[in-house]
Amino acid sequence: TLHDMDTTLSMTNSSRFQVSEFILMGLPGIHEWQHWLSLPLTLLYILALGANILILITIQHEPSLHQPMYQLLGVLAIVDIGLATTIMPKILAILWFDAKAISLPECFAQIYAIHSFMGMESGIFLCMAVDRYVAISYPLQYPAIVTEAFVIKATLSMVLRNGLLTIPVPVLAAQRHYCSRNEIDHCLCSNLGVTSLACDDITINRFYQLALVWVMVGSDMGLVFASYALIIRSVLRLNSAEATSKALSTCSSHLILILFFYTAVIVVSVTQLAGRKVPVIPALFNVLHNVMPPAFNPMVYALRTQELRVGSQKVLGLGANVSRK
């Protein structure tokens, strides 16, 4: 321990000492058996990639799916692939190969990507809610309002919004001084997990993250639920039972996903604040929150949207026919 005291003293003396890498410890409290989680997580990741790629191919393949509603689904599929790929390969490397070290730039890049993709997912849900609102409340004007140009503009504005507003998160994290501790009790680089290792004040980091999440996700959430309230009001005014059920079935799949996504955001935020006693719960939630929506979004849509279901069966059928030839 004298040696430890010496190193501590030398670190204090050279207070500009900066750690060269972080160590991702994996899921806190279950290090001994966390490798058993690698199988379900791998399956979830493969499912997320496969299902989203299938949706993209189906939308590309089927001329009847070249409509704004499905193009937005295509954008959501790309965001989902990005979100899952940002975190899963590293988590699996930790669980399988014990590759726990991560360089500082890689870690800050991961923080940036997770925040950007999460914001984009939320933004695309908002675009989809607006699309459904216009389709159901103003069916005659819908083709003129929601055009391909609308989808491109909406997508670009979401990419810009999240791409730019997220920049301060990793920049502020990189400006902190990491002088002694470098073990992150998690399997991904979360902003609060990383900055809590800093030796200097992190108030601004915590403040910016909270402001970002609540302003961006909070405003999206408010507008999404407002859109659905208006949609439900319009649907209840429809005279034909058939039109009502069709409108409700389209919107219910959206609502399932949106409720799941925003509930998860709130649960992750709350457990991170309260998760001092059982740290594995917020950590596991955080992982699942990044990989469950990408795996389940395409399934909910493909199962509940007839055109997509038929289209994806055709694409898979084509694959079967080609292999027979």
Automatic annotation (TrEMBL):
One record GO biological process: cellular response to lipid
Superkingdom to which the source organism belongs: Eukaryota
GO CC terms: plasma membrane
SUPFAM superfamilies for the chain: Family A G protein-coupled receptor-like
Bilayer-spanning residue ranges: 36-59, 71-97, 211-232, 253-274
Alphabetical keyword list: G-protein coupled receptor, Membrane, Olfaction, Receptor, Sensory transduction, Transducer, Transmembrane, Transmembrane helix
Main location: membrane
Subcellular location: Membrane
Domain G-protein coupled receptors family 1 profile, residue spans: 51-301
InterPro entries referenced in this protein's UniProt entry, alphabetically: GPCR_Rhodpsn, GPCR_Rhodpsn_7TM, Olfact_rcpt, OR51/52/56-like
GO molecular function, one term: olfactory receptor activity
Membrane topology: Multi-pass membrane protein
Job description of the protein: Putative odorant or sperm cell receptor.
Name of the protein this chain belongs to: Olfactory receptor 688
Annotated organism of origin: Ailuropoda melanoleuca (Giant panda)
